[in-house]
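Give me structure tokens for this 301-residue protein.
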Amino acid sequence: MIWIKRNLLFVIGGVLALGLLGAAGFYDYASWKRNSVAFDKLNEVYNTLRQFARQNPSPGNDKINNVEAAKQQEAQLRDWIHQAHNYFQPIAPIPNPTNGPLSNELFADALHRTIDQLQRNATNANVSVLPQYSFSFEAQRSRVKFAPGSLGALAAQLGEVKVISEILFAARINQLDGIQRVRVSDDDVSGPQTDYLAGNSVTKGQVVVTPYTVTIRAFSPEIAQTLAGFASSPHGFIVKSINVQPAGAALTEASPGMGMGAPYTPLPVAMPGKGGLQTVLQEQLLRATIEIVIVKLLPKN
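Here you go.
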């Protein structure tokens, strides 16, 4: 004790030195542990990068940045999808009430008005149609009440049939023999078989595919114009097949006030030669059956 008292400063200094050495050792140990953990993480990141670099395709290197290229391609793809929507615009159903539910009365009135309008459009375009043709809605034309749950599908088809008919009239075909659609109502069972197709609309991923068949009589330029009309439509029409053959018999006699069609005299195609123009091809009226589908995008959730 006497020695400690005499060397108190030395003792205190020694104790402080030992404490500082302990603190330094603990700091070194903690630092070593942190460095070890950081080193392990660095190795993990390095191994991950090495695995990525060995993948095909790899993220790239200092000269090629495949990640950035993938982002650019994704942006281009999204832009293409946005532009593609312009070619799959929905066709508005008829009627399309915005202030209440679709009722029997609304659809019956819209059906009569649409059929009358299409008949007038046919007359104005000089297109012949059958007397009192209902444009595939013969089963519904005389009804005031319709099968439960069918109004929405019938309204959608009426809108689509109207657009199809307008494309045909714009092409100036000679005669519309008929339009066929799929059955969507129990009322369709009582309709004429010539109004309908076998099968149904099909949902594929994010689209609904609805088939139609149109049968027309026209010359080749008008048939070409019809195909061009479907191709240029913004409503997602796709022509699946076309069957063309000589029309043969004369057109069905149209009733007064309906389109009577263009003259049916075969058109000669002439080419210059000795002694003037020479007929090399006698064009004739054709009967074309065209199978089309309408591709409709489902609404986003």
